[in-house]
Amino acid sequence: MRAYARELAGRFDAGFDPAGSGVEDNELVPPAGLFLVATVSTEAVGCGAVRLKAGEPAEIKRLWVSDTVRGLGVGRRLLDELERHAAVAGAGSVRLDTNRSLTEAMRLYRSAGYREIPRYNTNPYAHHWFAKPLT
Questions:
Q1: Cα torsion at 115, 120, 121, 126 (round to 10°)?
Q2: What are the residues whose beta carbons fall under 8 Å from the beta carbon of 120, sequence distance 6 or more?
Q3: What is the SS3 string spanning 4-59?
Q4: How many CA atoms lie within 13 A of 44 on its CB side?
Q5: pTM for this one?
Q6: For the sheet containing 33-40, what is the strand order?
Q7: I need a surface site. Which of 42, 58, 80, 88 has the fewest CB within 10 A?
Q8: What is the pLDDT at residue 21?
Q9: What is the per-residue pLDDT for 95?
Q10: CB atoms near residue 89 (< 10 Å)
């Protein structure tokens, strides 16, 4: 999703390179994970992924919603579906990281029941880390 990378590069202090965030594309496809794209007609307006590793919490990655549809619940629906997939795959909890400039994302995570946790990775773009138990 070029729009995703373009927006993040413009919002992050030091730009954004998806390759630098520690996630390989093959980790976001079954059975290792799942990558979803939200569309309106044929236009991609959002995306999100979940990475699954045995014995670890599931990890939400690449959650993004175009500013053209923010506030319409697209992000919440993507997040809900990624959490559902993680739970079906046997994950007991889910975690994620985010950049301090993504205030909309942090608001979404907190409203969805995520709580801030200590740093769990070395993602150079992350400033906040969150987790949520799955029931």
A1: 30
A2: 95, 97, 129
A3: HHHHHHHHCCCCCCHHHHCCCHHHHCCCCEEEEEEEECCEEEEEEEEECCCCCCEE
A4: 12
A5: 0.84
A6: 33-40, 43-51, 58-65, 93-98, 128-133, 115-117
A7: 42
A8: 60
A9: 98
A10: 17
